[in-house]
């Protein structure tokens, strides 16, 4: 799933407690699949994956850092979200402790990267569909998200519900910023010029 690190236009970081489904969310987005064994496996440090997206006929690359949720890796995690343009803060919709940790990560992130756009992500919606109760109530989460001016997505990595919509929204929000659009277009121009130069300027 994870690629060698290419040039990245948009750095996205995944934050949240262990076993909330960050890695499953990433795998669903990158490979459109769900691994039943992933919920029982913890990321050590961080893992990286990338994917090219296209918005308004403009192609650019998302580089996504999947960080470890364990508190023992907390200091290391801070290294990975520096410079991130977007962050997906995940929590398990049936786990109150993971919700409290999600709020911690929002505070921590905004104290370091004030301009990073935060997306709150409640995972495991399929469990709610089976009749389990959300903890806390989704109304509380939605009010919290509105209060901190971030978008809230309720997703199921297992079924794929709303996962692609989440990353589509992140991509569209990024390219809608004129500064980001300029950076992407400049990078495209530089790449095109580099390819032209390599063809037109033989050595010797």
Number of helices: 7
Distance between the termini: 42 Å
CATH first level: which class? Alpha Beta
- Uncertain runs: 198-204
- Structural class of the helices, strands and pairings? alpha/beta
- List how many beta strands DSSP finds: 6
CATH fold field value: Rossmann fold
User: Could you describe the largest sheet, including whether it forms a barrel?
Assistant: 6 strands, mixed
Question: What is the molecular shape?
Answer: globular
Radius of gyration: 18 Å
The chain-level mean pLDDT equals 87
CATH architecture: 3-Layer(aba) Sandwich
- Spatial strand arrangement across the major sheet: 2-3-1-4-5-6
Strand content: 15-25%
Q: What share of the residues lie within helices? A: 40-55%
Query: How do the SSEs run, as a string of H and E?
Result: EHEEHEHEHHEHH
User: How many domains in all?
Assistant: 1
Say which CATH homologous superfamily is assigned. Answer: P-loop containing nucleotide triphosphate hydrolases
Please explain how this structure is put together:
This protein is α/β, with parallel strands linked by helices and 204 residues long. It has one domain: 3-Layer(aba) Sandwich (Rossmann fold), CATH 3.40.50. Helices cover 43% and strands 22% of the residues. The chain has helices spanning 22-31, 74-81, 96-112, 125-129, 138-147, 163-176, 178-200; strands spanning 10-15, 46-55, 58-67, 86-92, 117-123, 151-154. Strands 2-3-1-4-5-6 form a six-stranded mixed β-sheet, with helices on both faces. A hairpin with a 2-residue loop joins β2 and β3. The termini are far apart. Mean pLDDT is 87; it is low at 198-204.
């Amino acid at each position: 799933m994870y690629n060698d690190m290419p040039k990245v236009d948009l750095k996205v970081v995944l934050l949240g407690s262990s076993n909330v489904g960050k890695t499953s969310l990433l795998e669903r987005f990158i490979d459109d699949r769900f691994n039943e064994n992933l919920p029982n496996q913890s990321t050590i440090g961080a893992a990286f994956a990338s994917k090219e997206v296209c918005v308004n006929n403009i192609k650019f690359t998302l580089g996504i850092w999947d960080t470890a949720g364990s508190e023992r890796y907390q200091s290391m995690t801070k290294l990975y979200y520096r410079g991130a343009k977007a962050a997906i803060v995940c929590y398990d919709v049936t786990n109150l402790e993971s919700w409290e940790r999600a709020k911690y990560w929002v505070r921590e992130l905004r104290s370091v990267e004030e301009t990073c756009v935060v997306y709150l992500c409640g995972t495991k919606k399929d469990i709610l569909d089976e009749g389990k109760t959300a903890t806390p109530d989704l109304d509380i989460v939605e009010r919290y998200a509105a209060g901190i001016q971030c978008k809230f997505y309720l997703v199921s990595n297992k079924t794929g519900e709303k996962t692609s919509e989440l990353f589509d929204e992140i991509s569209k929000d990024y390219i809608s910023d004129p500064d980001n659009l300029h950076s992407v277009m400049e990078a495209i121009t530089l790449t095109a010029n580099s390819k032209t130069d390599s063809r037109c300027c033989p050595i010797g």
